[in-house]
Amino acid sequence: DTAVSQTPKYLVTQMGNDKSIKCEQNLGHDTMYWYKQDSKKFLKIMFSYNNKELIINETVPNRFSPKSPDKAHLNLHINSLELGDSAVYFCASSRQLYGYTFGSGTRLTVV
Amino acid sequence: GNSVTQMEGPVTLSEEAFLTINCTYTATGYPSLFWYVQYPGEGLQLLLKATKADDKGSNKGFEATYRKETTSFHLEKGSVQVSDSAVYFCALSSGETGNQFYFGTGTSLTVIP
User: Fold this and answer.
1) pLDDT tens digits, one per residue of A6-48
2) d(CA A45, CA A35)
3) Angle subtended at Cα B7 by Cα B90 and Cα B71, rounded to the nearest 5 degrees
């Protein structure tokens, strides 16, 4: 009965590959997000979807593409992976002003 | 614009010491304020929140008071435990910007026995 679940938890892949991270929430929240956390623990928002519509698209390379098939899912697809993409990626969902619920993170390592 | 500034770490304390992690904010409108905690290898968890001025959020012995006059939301705990070792994030959500949250840079806390 995990509220926000993302898979996989760990992902090790070679440069140039394409990979996807999946996220699902069962909280009935309208908004979902992808965040990137670097090695210094700094959190940077990447995307935000509200009811399947993109509402925030920060400056990230266009190799990153979010996909929201329905409001309970927000997947992140990454093309042509680079070394600098190595980080922990967090999915989250929210109701307005009530706080975020985060997934447990996906540690991506590009070698 | 909206932003959150929190004290830089890392912070190292002995068990039972008093903890303060400073957080100040700038915001348009009337934001809600939050503290999140990230234990090693895990995602962020909501620790406490306050939705209007002078509100005090509290949880697990941690407290923070929403001070509009000083635009602050400092996190405090009277007696820390080894299990409190984690990274703490201050955050705000402004109704004027919908659901977007603004996070501070995080403060790493290590509590030694």
Assistant:
1) 999 999 999 999 999 999 999 988 889 999 999 888 998 898 8
2) 4
3) 60
Q: Which of B42, B49, B98 sits opposite A99 (nearest CB)?
A: B49
E strand spans, chain B:
3-6, 11-14, 19-21, 23-26, 32-38, 44-50, 56-59, 62-65, 75-77, 86-93, 101-103, 107-112
Interface residue A48 vs chain B (CB under 8 A): yes
Give the Cα separation of B102 and B93 in Å (integer). Answer: 6
B39, B31 contact by CB (below 8 A): no
For residue B6, the chain A residue with the least C-alpha distance is A42
Nearest to B99 among A40, A43, A96 (CB): A96
**Which helix (H) or strand (E) element contains residue A55?**
strand A53-57
**Widest distance between CA atoms in chain A:** 39
Q: Is the pLDDT of residue B99 over 80?
A: no
CB-based contact B59:B37 (threshold 8 Å): no
Kindly determine whether residue B42 and residue A94, on different chains, have CB atoms separated by under 8 Å: no
CA dist., res. A50 & res. A33, Å (int): 9
Residue B17: half-sphere exposure toward Cβ, Cα within 13 Å: 16
User: Measured between CB atoms, which of B43, B106, B108 is closest to A104?
Assistant: B43
